[in-house]
Design the sequence.
């Protein structure tokens, strides 16, 4: 005899796990845009800028200019994000804003092939425009999460986005690195030509894998069109601030997110410098970056699965706990007796980062998505963008103060534990009955 209760439960589980065309298309965009952040923002473009566009410029000056360009792009997006999001919440506008920023990013990524030796200003302008396109499109991409899936599946879909983004981004990155290392293999005269080809590959990858998102994902939650959208958007934005108590769980979560994601981002940004300090080569560090991208794939999916079983909040706490362990190992790293042991523990750090960075980012996005009014998703993800962009302020400041006071940088690293403790405490105050599908 068939147990109908068991059959019903299995059927419901299968239905919840199968993905719709909209969900798959949304996930593929993470595959598309992650290529930009890995190849352009992280690995290849900084080297191209230093060695080609800024050739002849003092190293300290070019590094400062690169940092200022990144800071300017992030600051501009952070300031504009809530207003752009408020506009995008009107019926039919979210897709338009997404497409506009996407095309901006792809076009200017292609134009990065133009700068030559000494074209520092042009290179920085094109890079800033491309980065604004990337980051701007992400605001609306994140906001579409509430349109493509339901609260029940939000953790799983968000986790898949990060997971496939990590693994997908390695394909154009590896192809670009092969061309740069073996330019003659593809008929290029020099590594410089191969580097420009890597930029083209990244832009085309970004555009091609965006096509399903453009075609299949639509704005289902919206605010009715207005005759005066600009004026009404400003009024709505002001009303959100006036009624902040009405959205207390969402803004309380953003406060928690600001602290713990600051710790996460600070650790990610300092990882390469740490590797250099303990004597690792450029090849080793690029290998570790690639390994982190690959390992982050299954771990991000694991976080999504476990969140479905034990809850989103516990998994966010678990991610913070892993980063606490990372901080403790990094604190002990300089005092380890041999270079071999330090290298071994650096690899352990890399694996721990890979195990949790995608999961904590994915679950933060989906948890926030369940806290906000769906018809205002772009506006609220604009705020989410602000808190994400202004992260890595407290972390470096804490590290600098602790290092200056104690005279040892390891105590600066240890101070990052404070960010995870504050973030965890604030997260515990978000009502458990809000934004958690399992409760």
Sequence:
């Amino acid at each position: 005899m068939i147990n109908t209760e068991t059959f019903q439960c299995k059927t419901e589980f299968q239905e919840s796990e199968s993905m719709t065309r909209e969900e798959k298309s949304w996930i593929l965009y993470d595959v598309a845009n992650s290529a930009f952040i890995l190849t352009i923002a992280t690995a290849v473009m900084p080297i191209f800028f230093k060695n080609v566009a800024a050739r002849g410029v003092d190293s300290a000056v070019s590094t400062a200019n690169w940092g200022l360009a990144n800071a300017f792009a992030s600051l501009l997006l952070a300031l504009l994000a809530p207003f752009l999001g408020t506009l995008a919440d009107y019926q039919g506008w979210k897709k338009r804003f997404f497409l506009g920023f996407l095309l901006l990013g792809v076009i200017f990524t292609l134009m990065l092939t133009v700068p030559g030796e000494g074209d520092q200003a042009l290179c920085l302008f094109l890079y800033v425009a491309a980065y604004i396109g990337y980051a701007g499109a992400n605001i609306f991409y994140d906001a579409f999460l509430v349109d493509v899936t339901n609260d029940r599946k939000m953790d799983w879909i968000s986790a898949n986005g990060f997971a496939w983004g990590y693994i997908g981004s390695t394909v154009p990155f590896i192809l670009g690195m092969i061309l740069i290392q073996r330019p003659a293999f593809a008929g290029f005269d020099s590594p410089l030509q191969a580097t420009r080809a890597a930029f083209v590959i990244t832009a085309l990858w970004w555009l091609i894998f965006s096509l399903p998102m453009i075609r299949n994902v639509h704005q289902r939650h919206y605010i009715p069109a207005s005759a005066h959208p600009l004026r009404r958007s400003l009024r709505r934005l002001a009303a959100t601030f006036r009624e902040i108590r009405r959205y207390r769980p969402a803004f309380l979560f953003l406060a928690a997110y600001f602290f713990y994601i600051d710790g996460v981002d600070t650790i990610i940004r300092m990882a390469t410098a740490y590797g250099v300090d303990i004597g690792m080569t450029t090849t080793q560090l690029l290998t570790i970056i690639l390994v982190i991208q690959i390992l982050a794939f299954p771990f991000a999916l694991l976080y999504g699965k476990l969140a479905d079983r034990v809850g989103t909040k516990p998994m966010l706490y678990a991610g913070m706990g892993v980063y606490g362990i990372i901080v403790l190992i990094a604190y002990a790293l300089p005092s380890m007796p041999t270079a071999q042991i330090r290298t071994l523990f650096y690899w352990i750090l890399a694996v721990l980062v890979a195990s949790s960075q995608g999961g904590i980012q994915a679950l933060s996005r989906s948890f926030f998505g369940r806290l906000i009014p769906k018809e205002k998703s772009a506006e609220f993800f604009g705020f989410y963008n602000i808190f994400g962009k202004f992260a890595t302020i407290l972390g470096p400041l804490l590290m600098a103060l602790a290092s200056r006071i104690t005279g040892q940088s390891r105590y600066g690293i240890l101070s990052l534990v404070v960010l995870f403790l504050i973030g965890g405490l604030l997260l515990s105050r978000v009502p458990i009955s809000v934004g958690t599908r399992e409760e």
Summary: The chain is about 80% helix and 0% strand. The two ends are 33 Å apart (CA to CA). Residues 242-439 form a domain with the Growth Hormone; Chain: A; fold (CATH 1.20.1250.20). Confidence is low (pLDDT under 50) at residues 1-16, 435-439.
